Amino acid sequence: MTKLNSRIETTGRIPDEAAGGLLHIDLDALAANWRALRDSAGGAETAAVVKANAYGTGIEQAVPALLRAGCRTFFVAHLSEAIRARAVAPDATIYVLNGLLTGTGPTYAEHDLRPVLGSRDEIEEWAAFSRAQGSRLRAAIHVDTGMNRLGLTVSESLELGGRDVLRDFEPALLMSHFVGAEESENPLNTRQIDAFRAVRQALPGIPASLANSSGIYLAQKPHFDLVRPGYALYGGNPTPDQANPMRPVVGLEGRIVQLRWVEADETVGYNGRWTATSRRRIATISVGYADGYPRSASARGHSGETLLAGMALVAGRPCPFAGTVSMDLITIDVTEAADQVKRGDSVTLIGGDLTVDEVGRRAGTIGYEILTNLRARYARTYRGGEG
Q1: Same domain for 51 and 118?
Q2: pLDDT tens digits, residue range 351-371?
Q3: 361 is in an annotated binding site
């Protein structure tokens, strides 16, 4: 067995030299972002949303780093994520945002987890399970103030105050979710805040939570008792109309596996959708959409055109993608840096001016999707997170 085989089998991780892409995660920056959000939350408890494998950074690494920073409450989307978080945070409060799947009460109780109840059926089932357990088990109540996805309607929520069912379990949190808090002037923000306050008044004594990352920075300061940042923790900008107050957490590099010259009028990539207008130097890197890099970042047209498409930093220079992002490979026009690159070099796909927000914009999507698509094929390196 080679040393490389032994390392893969022993650690289950991909060594740097065996990976086409290198993912760098700064846990110190993650902790610093949580502290900055806490300091902006007006004294409200600051939780952390760690769904989607902690936005691609790894639940098993991100949750302990956030615990050391002082976070005590976590939110995930699925029960399986909650069990992973519980394994590394035995004393934390953990909520499952997507609600109570039928028959999962025993699993919640076994791991001391809290469902976010968003319908009358879920409330009835959790109340019945609590009665059977002989204990007022804790859960959150989700009120829909405008998203129209999950949650009780405002009218349903207002009717809860007089119902005996709330005596069978402990409503530990009353929560809702902003539709567009990143749009600071969106009138929906004020309407949602007003609706949520009305429900809170009808259900007194329950800690309340409305603000996500962007909600923390709204002028109305709708912090209530607990805020639930997610995207901003991982370096995304919660205030898109202003400078980003967060530190970058994620960096991504791709390794050059081949360099070639392409002559004028030759095409690059599947279906020949990108054409060289002059002799161009093309680098192929070992990253593609199977690694989670979006195919929508593909470059179509001709070299030299200004395209909204993917880009890499090559020897510090911005170099545009050339052609279609394929399953395992991306081709980049590195002509402007041709004398500075060689086979085996790494190029930056996320980092520096290529923030997660900018990468998302160039792919016609959002930074959230860029982060949560980060795949297991990357070699991962973690910095900090201790103490």
Answers
A1: yes
A2: 999 999 999 999 999 999 999
A3: no
